[in-house]
Amino acid sequence: MSGQEGGSEAAAAAPGRSFASRALGSGAWSMANFGLGQIMRLGSNLILTRILSPDDFGLMALVTSFLIGLTMFSDMGFGPSIMQSKRGDEPDFLDTIWTLKIIRGFMIFGAAMVMAWPLALFYDAPLFGWVFPAAACSMIVGGFLPTRIDTAARHLQLGRLTVIELGNQLIGILLTIAAALVLQSVWALVWGNVLGALVQLLMFRLFLPGHRNRLRMEPEARAEVMKFGKWIFFSTICGFLLFQGDRIILGRVLTLNQLGIYNIGLFLATVPAMLGSSIAGRLFIPMYRQHPPAESAENTRILARTRAGLTALLLAVAVILAWAGPPLVELLYDPRYAAAGGILVAIACIQMLQVIPLSYESAALAAGDSRGFFVVQSTRAAIYSALVAGGAVLYGLPGLLIGQALAQVLCYPATVWLARRHGCWDPRHDLVAATLAIVAAATALNGHRDAVLAAMIP
C-alpha cells in the first residue's frame, strides 16, 4: 500500500458511519482504554511496591517529571495539528510531522544528558545523574512512533488503536516486573520503560494500518505546523508547571521516601483528571471541529449533553476515591505507604473542581486557536505556580495542597474567557457541578479528617 493510499483510506473510512455513532464508539473505546490501562497500572504498582522501596519510586517520580517536562517544553502540538488541520490526511504533511518528531526525540535526549548532573547535585541524589539520561533513551524511540496513531484519533477510529495500546502497556508492565525481580532497584523502572517504548514502536508499525511514514520536510507543511505549534509550545511549558510542578517542588521539600509515598497517593487520586483528559483529547477535538457550538443550537445541545455526561462520570469517580482513600491504601499497600491514604483524599477533593471545565480547552484547539489556548494556560500556570510554590515554601505539603485548591478557583475566569470566545461556555453546568463538588469534598475531608491530618505531618 502506498503512502497516498494509506492516507486516503483513513479519510474515506470516516464518513462510512454517522458522526454520532463514531463519537459514541470513540468515547466508549477511550473509557475502556483508560479503565483497563489503569487496572493494569494498579496491578503493576501493587507488585512493584512489594519488590522495590519508596525511595526507588521517589527517584523515578522525579526522573519522570523532568522527562515529561522536556517533552512538554519541546511540544509543537503535532497530534492536535494532525487532528485539526485540513491537510491532516495528506502524506507530505504527515511525513513532515514524523520527521520533526524524530528530530525532537534526539533533542530531548541531548538535553537530558546536559541536565542530568546539575539536577543530581541540586536534589542531592547522585543516582539521578545516571538514571535520568538512561530513561531519556525512551524519548528517542518515541520520536519514531507513526503518525497513523493521530490519524486514527482524527477520524474517531479508536478500536484497533486501543487494543494495540493496551497490549503495549501489558507487555511493558511484564518487562518492568521481570526487571524488578532481577535488579531489585530503580533500574528496573528505567529499563522497563525503555524496553516498553521499543515494544510500542514495533507493535504500532506492524499492526496499525495507515500511511507509512518516510523522512520528508515539506516547507509548506513545516510552516503550518510551526504557526499552529508555536503557541502550543508555550502552552505546554505552562502545562508542565500545572501538571508536574508539585513533584518538582516537593523534591526539595520532602525526602525521596516521602516523595514516593506522595506519588502513590497522587497516582490513585488523579484518575478522574487523567480519564477526563484521555476522553477530551480524543473525543472533544473532533466533535468541536465537526460541530462548532457557535454554528447552531443543535450543536450546542449535543456538546452540552456530552459535557454533562463526562462531568458526572468524573465527579462520581473522584467522590468514590475521596471516600475510599485510607481503607483503599490500607487494603492495597503495605504499611510503609499508609500515609498515602490521607494524601489520596485531599488530592481527590481538589480533582472534583479541576474536572468541571475540562472540555472547554478542546474548543480552542479544534478551531486552531492555539494562541487563545496559550493565554489561558499561561494565566493558569502563573496563578498555580505562585500559590503552590508559596504554599510549599511556607507550610510544606499542606501548603502545597491548599495552593492547588485555591488555584482551581482563581483560574476559572480565564477558562470562562476561552469558552465564551468559542461559544461553548455552559454556566448552569459549571454551577451545578461546582456545588456538588464542594459539598462532596467537604463531606469527605470531614469524614477522613484524622487520616488527612496525619498525612500532612512528615
From TrEMBL:
Positions of transmembrane segments: 57-78, 98-121, 127-145, 166-183, 189-208, 228-249, 261-285, 306-325, 337-360, 372-395, 431-448
Topology in the lipid bilayer: Multi-pass membrane protein
Alphabetical UniProt keywords: Cell membrane, Membrane, Transmembrane, Transmembrane helix
UniProt KW Transmembrane helix keyword: yes
Top-level division of the source organism's lineage: Bacteria
One GO CC term, this protein: plasma membrane
Locations listed in the record: Cell membrane
Pfam families cross-referenced by the UniProt entry: Polysacc_synt_3
Family under the similarity heading: Belongs to the polysaccharide synthase family.
Protein name, entry field: O-antigen/teichoic acid export membrane protein
Species the sequence originates in: Paracoccus versutus
Lineage, top ranks: Bacteria, Pseudomonadati, Pseudomonadota, Alphaproteobacteria, Rhodobacterales
